[in-house]
Amino acid sequence: MNAVAELQLLNGLQQALGEQQLHMVYQPKVSLRDGGLRQVEALVRWNDPELGPVKPSMFVPLAEEHGLIDELTFWGLRTILRQWLDWRDAGLDTCIAFNISALSLQHLDFPDLVERMCRGLDVPTEKIVLELTEGATQPLVKLMDALTRFRIKGIGLAIDDFGTGYSSLMQLRQLPFTEVKIDQAFVADVPHSRDSRLIVQAVTELAHGLGLFATAEGVETIDQLRTVRELGCDLVQGYLVSAPIEGKALKPWVQKFRRAWPAMIAEEKLALWGDIETDPRSEWQI
Ligand code: C2E
Ligand code: CA
Ligand code: CA
Predict the structure, then answer these.
(1) H or E segment at 43?
(2) How far does residue 98's CA lie from ligand 2's centre (Å)?
(3) pLDDT tens digits for 138-154?
(4) Residue nearest to atom 46 of ligand 1 (CA)
(5) 61 secondary structure, DSSP code
């Protein structure tokens, strides 16, 4: 992106934050055991009157670079807490997962602030899960203090995009996470790639051994869903289950999905070690 385009985007974002042009959509995360809704992940959307829809992967890093991330985070938190109240009033009981920039965790009082916001609106902290990604300049291990404080307050912590970038197995052991989200890169070819399958299985087993649960992200096909289920993942999220939807669409979705679930997991006889590429070691093993 050139400097002019970046400046235009930045001005637009500043205005969007001030004029409420941002909104949240929500993507269900369901249990692979019974198909029940366990969480929804909040994903921010920005539709600029001039620029059109702008992807969060474009403007979130920009907000981080130019000091707007805290404003975006607080807008997001207020929005999801109000949404949770609307769902509760409509008889829906779910947790909300919220993506958080590691930068926001550098403020020492941030965990207290989140707790106060929850208390102020009467939302139990146990209903909130924060999703974090490891960044090159923000090793999560440096945020141990903040993460521990969130856990003490009952807020869940998920490590996002696990297996890509800088995230490591060590983080799982050292930090107080409650959930591992296995990146969609591994999930995509899990039905056909022996390597991806081994990775998903190993991460899931490790997560369980450490008392965390494992979520498969970006599930788009029935084969992927059935395979990650066989491999022991706990939760699934992706276009197959639902694209991100408006808050008010969640209740009708729950009713529709309840009817769709049994067919998704029918014909469970999955040739787990069948039609996959040959073991690469067989070429050099004697
Ligand atoms: P993420 O947290 O890894 O979110 C998952 C992304 O995958 C979302 O893209 C979602 O729409 C997309 N997705 C969901 N299911 C599928 C699928 O089956 N297949 C494929 N190919 N993609 C799927 P989105 O909404 O464009 O968000 C991109 C990233 O922007 C997020 O990645 C997250 O890191 C960041 N982000 C989104 N909302 C927020 C926010 O409110 N605050 C912060 N700090 N970051 C956010
Ligand atoms: Ca996420
Ligand atoms: Ca992710």
Answers:
(1) strand 37-48
(2) 7
(3) 677 778 999 999 999 99
(4) 99
(5) H
